[in-house]
TrEMBL record:
Keywords: Flavoprotein, FMN, Monooxygenase, Oxidoreductase. One of its GO terms (molecular function) is nitronate monooxygenase activity. This is Nitronate monooxygenase. Gene3D superfamilies: Aldolase class I (3.20.20.70). Pfam families: NMO. InterPro entries: Aldolase_TIM, NMO. It comes from Aeromicrobium ginsengisoli. PANTHER family: 2-NITROPROPANE DIOXYGENASE, 2-NITROPROPANE DIOXYGENASE-LIKE PROTEIN.
Amino acid sequence: MIEQLLSTPLTDLTGVRHPVVQTGMGWVAGPSLVSGTANAGGLGILASATMTLPELEQAIIEVKERTDEPFGVNLRADAADAPARCELLISYGVKVASFALAPKPELIARLKEHDIVVIPSVGLPKHAVKVASWGADAVMIQGGEGGGHTGSVPTTLLLPTVLDAVDIPVIAAGGFFDGRGLAAALSYGAAGVGMGTRFLLTADSRVPDAVKQRYLIAGLDDTVVTKKVDGMPHRMLRTELVEQVEGGAGMRRLVPTARRTLEFKRMAGMTWKQLAVDGRAMRKEQGRTLGQLALAANTPMMLKAGLVEGDATVGVLASGQVVGVIDDLPTCEELIDRVVTEAATALKRASGYVV
């Protein structure tokens, strides 16, 4: 394990040694991966969207048993029980709350009262300006190269426009996998990088080995962005199922969609009222149609089938384009040591160009 080589606003803000974030991937970012990242000096983010409230509490306890280092929890800002989940973070002294979508100002204020660092994910400069005005400590941006729900603007254009728009630290995600990428992001002015697919493909990840091998053989052109899984742009591996969904008519997906909605409701322990409240929030905040809301219930179960159960015939495999350049399964410590060392070397080399 290497000592700190790079000091940035991210390391200062969160207390981690290295400006590397393991993003909160549903069904992937569990206690093993998060604690492995934290012990290696990075910022591990626990994914809570696919957990019930008791499951989240148990996961936080397990991470704290595995590490004394800072870590974070990713939350759905539009979830009906988001305030209750924030209270868990406060109770257990979690260092960072990261959010998909923008948390309400009162939620940010509540977390900051307890010195919890608030880092929402944003897709446009105007969103960064909004959450910064509400008190967010930093933001994470993800360019179109990233996996899962993603936008169309590449990281190389999204990052500088967000940096120009706000004065708080910006973490860059989408297309990062090595030290050269970290060096490039820091040169742009970012405070660090977030990596998802690269951490999924580590020895500390609990994704089944057979699924990891499927990722490892993928090429740069083996991902696809589709709206047909849940109505929003979603980058994933190009599998037989994805090809079928892409080519299928909406009505033929109606029955399995309804079935998966019921399964997710049962698994999450949600009442019909909670499901309706979440649905209304998604419709209001994201502008989704009723059909897209029905499709959205597909996502957790299809990701679980692929990433937990290892069945790509009925599940999907979220992936960034970087999958095409990854060919190994290091531990989190080996990965972070390598990335940070390479970045420091690249920055020193680049400084030699200055006259």
